[in-house]
């Protein structure tokens, strides 16, 4: 490309400039991109050059045109290269890699926005009304997006900006519908918004996200690909059957102790293991850390309870009830954590932002429905744990609740429960991040399988014997000090 020339030049009626462009074309410094448009880029494919400069070129060819219909809603051409402009007449123009559909109609109004190089773009209310017009074509060249796409856009607006924004959009659409002669389209838009806001029947809707919102179960659609990836991977794998080690109450209590000790250590509640043992079994009072001591005791009480330790939710309502009851037991001495109540403000960890408060119940519902495809036991337990961690429904205590729910599912299926030793913490958290951020479930499956394999080997005849094995395995060390090993 000639650095002394812009990439795009337009033909002109100005004689001197027209002669200059003609000389540049003859000398090989310019080539024709499309009628009345030239480019100094002599190497890239013409379709690539046009895509890169699409809106400036369209503004030069069709001054005052309005980017409208699906092109306004989708922000550009369709995957097949079709773009729609409202203009002074109806015509189709084929350019390199792009088909321009000119649609005769009312030009830009005061509510539409100036765009690029003399173009305008439909306002959001106008674009939605335009996309509710009848379209003769049902293929990718249709001027309108699908009804489902319109509903998803409305749901997205409500999800991000709230119900007031959706009502404001309806008011603005009503104000311009008469001017644009979009009376029938406004009736459709009004009905869709009413259905999403639960003032009209949900049967009017076709979008899964909009239907869920209308039923009070609005969910975060960005989590579904992540959950689907985990579900698919779990369905493809067979996992070893590792039966629960014992039915002896003393041994169950000993395992529950180590489970609660490590689960709390992961979250920063750090006690020496002997000190924690005294807190749980000898009811030692830790004067300067009563809440931390309660965290360990609360986790232990759930893991050791004959009913709650193996309680698996058989309905979605049971899942919600079990989650809240578990959280209340854990957090009852921490009022700031709203024991037993879902969060009311967004929360995050590092670069990960969890599901918004108003989408918690619906996202849990979506995940619970997926979970039913998995066999009871290890696969379902891992999915349930990750679902709770990905949603993060509570202000605090989510990790402990998630691992307790996982282990309850395992005990319900009479399979070995899982502990995550201190030394294995970073492996565990890295595996969760790989799935949450990279949609890669493989590390999590490998990590949890190894953790269960290790957990099945913890000797439970006595505290001394179990403690000795865990020390030999480096279980109590930090992740940067050693690796988890299986003795022998």
What report would you give on this structure?
The chain is of the alpha+beta class. It contains 20 helices and 11 strands. The chain folds into 3 domains: 115 residues, no CATH class; 69 residues, no CATH class; 251 residues, Fic-like fold (Orthogonal Bundle). 50% of the residues lie in helices and 8% in strands. Helix 14 crosses helix 17. It is elongated, with a radius of gyration of 31 Å. The model has no long low-confidence stretch (mean pLDDT 94).
Q: Number of helical segments?
A: 20
Low-confidence stretches: none
- Which percent band covers the strand fraction? 5-15%
Our Rg estimate from Cα atoms comes to: 31 Å
Shape: elongated
Give the tally of β-strands.
11
**Which CATH class of the largest domain?**
Mainly Alpha
Largest pleated sheet = 6 strands, mixed
Whole-number tally of structural domains:
3
How is the largest sheet built, in terms of strand order?
6-7-5-4-9-8
Which range best describes the helical content: under 10%, 10-25%, 25-40%, 40-55%, 55-70% or over 70%?
40-55%
Q: Output mean pLDDT.
A: 94
CATH topology name of the largest domain, in short, is Fic-like fold
Give the topology:
Layout: E1 8-10, H1 15-26, E2 31-34, E3 37-39, H2 46-52, H3 54-61, E4 66-67, H4 69-74, E5 82-87, E6 91-95, E7 98-104, E8 113-114, E9 120-121, H5 124-130, H6 147-161, H7 163-180, H8 183-196, H9 208-214, H10 224-236, H11 249-266, H12 273-281, H13 290-304, H14 316-331, E10 348-349, E11 352-353, H15 360-371, H16 378-391, H17 398-412, H18 425-438, H19 442-455, H20 463-472
Parallel strand pairs: 4-9, 5-7
Antiparallel strand pairs: 1-3, 2-3, 4-5, 6-7, 8-9, 10-11
